[in-house]
């Protein structure tokens, strides 16, 4: 009797992957993910700063169109809401992993 006939993917028994022999590759994935996350959060921050600057320019009476101020503000608001929703999904996934029994 062959066990592999009943296992859909025999790569689950590849203990080199489980033991962490590709530790350098894992570190690269983690650092790539962290850099992408940091870049996107910096972009959200830049949109907030840009919206604040355009609002201040409008209040001071500079030649800034109210339409552009509203667009900048809404874009910053939507990007912040998206970042919060993504954070909520990460927290939800983390909590789900903690509830998982081994």
UniProtKB/TrEMBL annotation:
Which subcellular locations apply to this protein?
Answer: Bacterial flagellum basal body
Check the record and name the NCBIfam families matching this protein: fliE
Instruction: Output the InterPro entries linked to this UniProt entry.
Output: FliE (IPR001624)
| Keywords attached to this entry | Bacterial flagellum
Listed GO biological process terms: bacterial-type flagellum-dependent cell motility
Q: Which GO terms describe its molecular function?
A: cytoskeletal motor activity; structural molecule activity
This protein's species is Clostridium kluyveri (strain ATCC 8527 / DSM 555 / NBRC 12016 / NCIMB 10680 / K1)
Annotated Gene Ontology cellular components are: bacterial-type flagellum basal body
Q: Which family does it belong to?
A: Belongs to the FliE family.
Q: What is this protein called?
A: Flagellar hook-basal body complex protein FliE
Keyword Metal-binding assigned to the entry: answer is no
């Amino acid at each position: 009797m062959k066990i592999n006939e009943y296992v859909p993917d025999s790569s689950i028994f590849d203990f080199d992957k489980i033991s962490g022999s590709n530790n350098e590759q894992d570190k690269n994935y983690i650092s790539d993910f962290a850099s992408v996350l940091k870049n996107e959060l910096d972009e959200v921050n830049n949109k907030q700063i840009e919206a604040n600057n355009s609002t201040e320019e409008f209040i001071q009476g500079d030649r800034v169109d109210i339409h552009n101020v509203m667009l900048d503000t809404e874009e910053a608001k939507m990007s912040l809401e998206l970042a919060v929703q993504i954070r909520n999904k990460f927290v939800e996934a983390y909590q789900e992993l903690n509830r998982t029994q081994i």
